[in-house]
């Protein structure tokens, strides 16, 4: 029992001594001017750093907003440029089509070739003029081809336009002042199936020419090249 009481007294003394040392250390640290100065300086630095960070974050948000606005402006300009290029491409295509329709541009493509020949048989009692190709026969073929979607038409290789004229001059016909003798080959660029079908419809233009004793041959062509109007021919 005495040994246990002695141990308790010793343990109590050690705890008291340790508590006194802790209290002294805390009081010393609290009253130390250098530590208090360091603490004030540390809080000040931390405040400055936080203020700088907040300012940088605010500036970053402002720059991001400006970037979004500039990107929107760039997208708008790109759209305007794309629309302008599309319009210019459309105008260029339209101009090319107009040049093609008026015969100012060389054209290539599929189409048909219609050959009109004088009748190979003329009865002795008949008039020869009733068995040869006249300008109205050529015009009927040209007109039918154009209304059926032909993009370009030529007669014996001579391109015709919206101002072209065809007249008879004895045994030949004149196309815009240039004489051509039979047979007459009328070439047209367009859908071969559509053009040929329009020509050979029952009771259509081919049947009318056959009734006028004209030999007519319609052929589909895979490749036709037509020079511009008034271009020099080789």
Automatic annotation (TrEMBL):
Annotated InterPro entries: DUF881
Keywords: Coiled coil
Coiled coil: 53-87
Gene3D superfamilies: Protein of unknown function DUF881
Pfam families, sorted: DUF881
Superkingdom of origin organism: Bacteria
Family classification: Belongs to the UPF0749 family.
Name by which UniProt lists this protein: DUF881 domain-containing protein
Organism: Geobacillus stearothermophilus (Bacillus stearothermophilus)
